[in-house]
Amino acid sequence: MSWLFKDPVLLAAVLCTWLPFLSMAVILIFTRHKPQLSSYISIGAVSTSLICALYLLIKLVHVGEPVEYRTAWLIADDIIIPFGYLFDPLSLLMLLIVAVISFLVQVYSLGYMAGDPGFSRYYAFQSLFAWAMMDMVIAPGMLQLYIFWELVGLASYLLIGFYYEKWSAGQAGKKAFVMTRLGDIGFFLGLILLVLGFGDLGIVAMNEAAQAQAIPSYLITASALLIFCGVIGKSAQFPLLTWLPDAMEGPTPVSALLHSATMVAAGVYMFSRIFPFFAASPTAMAIALAIGTITMLLSSTMAMATYDIKQVWAYSTVSQLGFMVMGLAAGGYFAGVFHLTTHAGFKALLFLCSGVFIHEYHSNDMRDIGKGGGRSLKIPMVCMTVGALALSGVFPFSGFFSKEAIMGVLAAYPNKIWLLAGLLGALMTAYYSFRLIFMILFPKKVDATMPHDAVHYHQEKDDKIQIDHEEAAAGHGAAHGHGSSHGHEEGHGNVFWYMAWPLIILTTITLVLGFFQHSLEGFLLGHAADAHGGEGGHGAGHYALLIAAVSMGLAGIAWAYYEFGRKGASQEGFLARLPKTQALFANRWYIDRFLRRFLDRAIYGGLTNVFTRNDRRVIDGGIDGFCLFTIGSGRLFSFLQSGMLQYNLLVMVAAVGLVVLYFVV
Amino acid sequence: MNFMTEAMAQAAFWIVVGLTLAGAVIAVFPRNIVYNVLGLVLALTGVAGLYVFLGSMFIGLMQLLIYVGAICVAIVFAIMLSRPLHLEVPQRKLPKVLLAAMASCLFAIALIGVSLRTAWKPAAERGTDWSVATIGELLLTRYDLVFEVISLVLLVAILGAIVTAGFSRRLTS
Amino acid sequence: MNTLSTYLIIAALLFGLGLLGVLQRRNLIGMLISIELMLNGANINFMAFNRFLAPEPAVGQIITLFVMGLAAAEAAIGLSIILALFRKFRSINVERAQQMRG
Prior knowledge:
By secondary structure, chain B is an all-alpha fold. Helices cover 79% and strands 0% of the residues of chain B. The longest helix of chain C is centred in the C-terminal third of the chain and has 33 residues, at 57-89. Chain C has helices at 4-24, 28-52, 57-89. At the A-C interface, helix 27 and helix 28 of A face helix 1 of C.
């Protein structure tokens, strides 16, 4: 072990990435029945990770070349698959983000999950999540990245289905797992293709070879597209985007973690991790750009039609991820990563704030929270507004800077349609965010004499929306689940502050982070800037663009204010007047239904039949035949086992006699 | 005179052999079990006579004591307890008898062949001490372990017999 | 008359007759009787070897004694098993005792 202590960087790296794993093991094995101790172990581990990540960042911030610790893990002839650590600005930054968000979420969970019967289990899974994500972030090779990528998927499956006794939670967990797996098939195929064609899965080697055009372009395009399938699954991009809104079945802090720094960020992180590799294939980049755009627009529209606050943020995550993919695919390496960073901060903030509301009012419905007096919770209300402002891209919050960066990249792109789409997305984002804020902040006055009518009114409206049964069940189930699993705990003030501090810290980060844009840019691009210098956006049209983007955001807010905020507003939104469109949005553009149809027709109807036939006829038939043969021969031989002692003896004696005669006489 | 005793001894030997084999045949063939037991008594007595011819009066007496006196009596008791006389006598199946006869003939021929074709060599030095005292001494010195084990086996057999017979009674009643 | 092979042949005949009984009797007690015959055939062999070949005449007699002791034990166990079987099947016909047949 002495090699470990010789190099403090390596020691810090190992501590940082493996302590959460250790804490998971300790919790699962030893302290499962001591929830308090489990949470302390887990938080202790993750805070140590946080300190180590900070140390690594400070220590390595000025190192020019990426620092790499690797051992050859699998050696097959000339294919060497490494395992170890890769520290470059991107992984250091991401490591820090993961550590910070995990730490804050775990502290927050002390309040949110207090009294839950699965408290220890929850912390074990949180540790697993942190471990998987951190080891994924520092992976020097694609295979290690892939392994931990899947572990991240596993952890999110476990946490989404945390309330496993609830049917919809189990379903949501399965949906998340299976849909991301669908993308991962493509990812893995891409890796195989790459090993066959290129023979090295080291990230540095891949990027350098792609930049030096040492890999044939068709190979890059094919494998990049396949690998992008993984991003589609993990980061909930266009055809596979519906698992993420369902993922809010898990506890709210889990959603915060999942939506900000870990699960969905993994996809975008992987994209930026091998960004030069992707950049070497214009086709792949174009397709990624289109998919990102479609995702962003679709999910923004979906967010306009839901009343579940967690779902609004979930859709907004999807749309922001689409936005990041757009930024990356348009060539804006820094822009995408920067938005990933800021988004991690404010999205965690938004979810944690909603968590406070949900915790307090036992409802996910923004109308209920508004009527219940959501505005009286000052700290979360303010924090949520800050988060929403950041999400809408309003100066001076962090979202403004990163969105601006992506807009700049899009503006530099020759085809302006992407820029228009981006601006439209910004408008819709501001609209749906502030629709939520205003609905909580300025609840429609309910006539005290007729409370029942109001309820009926909402129910009728719900019916009109014709939400799919599945989703309706999911929404109600979530509300009930929270209602039953947390009563009002003792020590309310303590719990409240556990939950409030992370909010305040995240708010501060959201406020401050934007101003570090240039230092971050220098840090991230310091060594790679020359590789893709076309980091546009700071040209002539910059100010015009800036004004356009901000005004889009403000216009969205104003629109929302007009419909939901001002006195006497109907709080119905323009969608209520377009029932068809609203149904379309609320049902997620029927993507789920389409996937279900596809599954029923193509998989269950076609493919499965073939396999079933094969199973029945060939495999079962073969086994049956073998069994029949065994039984038959057993019958045959059992005639000898007649129970007739004397015949057995007779045969034996005769045989011995013959042998003796043969040898002697 | 010497010739006479020699001839008498010869005649006595063959008579004993005849009695033994006749007893064996009676013990095996008749279907009435009581005849079989009586045949067995005859054959065992004949064997005791053979032991006397082989120079050991003691073993001959033991043969009479143990086999004829104990085992045959036990068999008679078993016959009385299991009342086979009251049950129908099973019919003999010719193919089975023929097969059994062939197999046992084969085996007997093999044995006789072995004993005839082997060149038996007597030991170089042969003692002449046939006394019962030596047998007793050897039993308690050189063969004491075997002696003890045999005793144990007998004990276990007695207990086992009691248990087997007793338990089955309890189970069936 | 007093040669080794005479005794060996007599022993073999006795053994063969006993074997025949074991193989064809259906009566369990009959089989037990036949087994006693076979044991006696073996005993004659021991005694004959003792008389004509062995260096120490006491040893063969001792072994014969042991065989007798074992035969007594075997008879005791065998008879008790026969009694148990008789109680169970109301018969001492071996061909009825076929519960283990395949």
